[in-house]
Specification:
Blueprint: H1 3-8, E1 25-29, E2 46-48, E3 50-53, E4 63-66, E5 73-75, H2 81-84, E6 90-99, E7 107-112, E8 125-129, E9 134-140, E10 148-156, E11 162-170, E12 182-186, E13 189-190, E14 194-199, E15 213-215, E16 234-242, H3 248-255, E17 276-279, E18 286-291, E19 296-303, E20 309-318, E21 320-324, E22 331-339, E23 342-350
Antiparallel strand pairs: 1-16, 2-5, 3-4, 4-16, 5-15, 6-11, 6-16, 7-8, 7-15, 8-9, 9-10, 10-14, 11-12, 12-13, 17-18, 18-21, 19-20, 19-22, 22-23
Length: about 350
């Protein structure tokens, strides 16, 4: 099948974002056409040196780029404290990122923090890629830097591929020196947490400060960058904010959400379908496609993150088919399965 014909097909995209994943959703940012406006929640962003870029499916202008040399940041104002602060606070962030290079060190993805280096006391929390290249949550229990904890995941990110992160915090849990308040997932894998920094022996909770909520670097109460270093250099996409802790099944569903690919491969209509399964995923050497009711399918197409077709198998496959992946590099791929006149998309991770 040539690529022109492929792009003209009417396809079915698989949407795994279940209704439960909209429960307690506070804000959503998909950065379509480079816009910083909220798709849900009403709090729009204001960018400084932000650039529209392709997303993980290769869709043009569907993610944002932040540049270290230009001190790129996004401010959403002094907002969302009602879910971040207090002794009953629960929140989760889901987002995708792709390093622009391998020099990110203690570089902030998402923050609500301003400190003494910018003449303020507005410390709440920050999510960053730290000096060990691991995902870390820092949460402060005093605006004046009196008490805080930092916990990192166990997986280092030393590449420039797209990755999915979920970070959750629950102020109602007071066990294990505050460690049990935190959950971090990287590409659906729950992270084993290690303490990175700590001050204060007793646990309190995040206080309501005036720093701006933002992306790329800590921001002051006026929305400016708080200090000269640690600007994140790379790409971000599909940020979701919840006022609850999402569970592992929801994390997997968010990771496997293929709705964004539809604009890249000519989608006309989209329906929910569960007529096939793909396993193991993540994979090393092979994956198997299995259809319910032993249905027949005609082809399997593998695409990289730019939308380029890098593999295809054509035939009459009855019920199931196994594909060898030993020649694929590690990364995220889209698998398209043709059933009759339709195509169903699944994300595949090659480790």
């Amino acid at each position: 099948m040539n690529q022109k014909l492929f792009y003209s097909l009417v396809i079915i995209c698989t949407f795994l974002t279940a209704q439960s994943q909209t429960a307690n959703l506070v804000a959503q940012y998909d950065f379509s056409n480079g816009s910083l406006n909220a798709q849900f929640g009403g709090v729009n962003g204001s960018g400084h040196n932000i650039y529209a870029s392709p997303d993980r499916f290769g869709n043009k202008n569907e993610a944002i780029e932040l540049r270290r040399t230009q001190n790129s940041t996004v401010s959403f104002g002094d907002n969302f404290d009602h879910i971040f602060t207090g002794n009953s606070a629960k929140f989760s962030f889901s987002f995708w990122f792709k390093n622009g290079d391998l020099a990110n060190s203690n570089a902030s993805f998402i923050t609500k923090y301003s400190g003494s280096d910018c003449g303020e006391d507005g410390r709440e929390f920050g999510i960053r890629i730290n000096s060990s290249k691991k995902i870390e949550l820092l949460y402060f229990m005093s605006l004046q830097n009196g008490s805080y904890r930092g916990y990192e995941g166990h997986t280092a990110v030393n590449d420039t591929n797209w990755h999915h992160v979920v970070v959750s915090y629950n102020a109602t849990i007071n066990t294990n020196n505050g460690k049990d308040r935190v959950q971090i997932y990287l590409d659906t894998i729950p992270q084993n947490l290690s303490l990175t920094i700590s001050q204060g022996s007793s646990l309190s909770y995040i206080q309501d400060g005036s720093a701006h909520f933002g992306l790329g670097a800590p921001l002051t109460s006026a929305g400016g960058k708080c200090f000269s270093g640690n600007t994140y250099h790379g790409y971000m996409d599909d940020i979701l904010i919840y006022s609850r802790n999402i569970n592992s099944s929801e994390v997997a569903a968010l990771y496997n959400d293929t709705s964004s690919i539809c604009s890249n491969i000519g989608m006309k209509d989209a329906v929910q379908t569960s007529i096939l399964s793909l396993y193991p995923n993540p994979t090393h050497n092979y994956f198997t496609i299995e259809m319910i009711d032993n249905q027949t399918f005609k082809s399997v197409i593998i695409m990289d993150q730019t939308g380029k077709i890098i593999g295809q198998e054509v035939g009459t496959f009855i019920g199931s088919h196994t594909v060898n992946t030993t020649n694929l590099s590690s990364g995220i791929y889209t698998v398209l399965v043709q059933t009759g006149n339709n195509k169903i998309a699944r994300l595949l991770v090659k480790e």
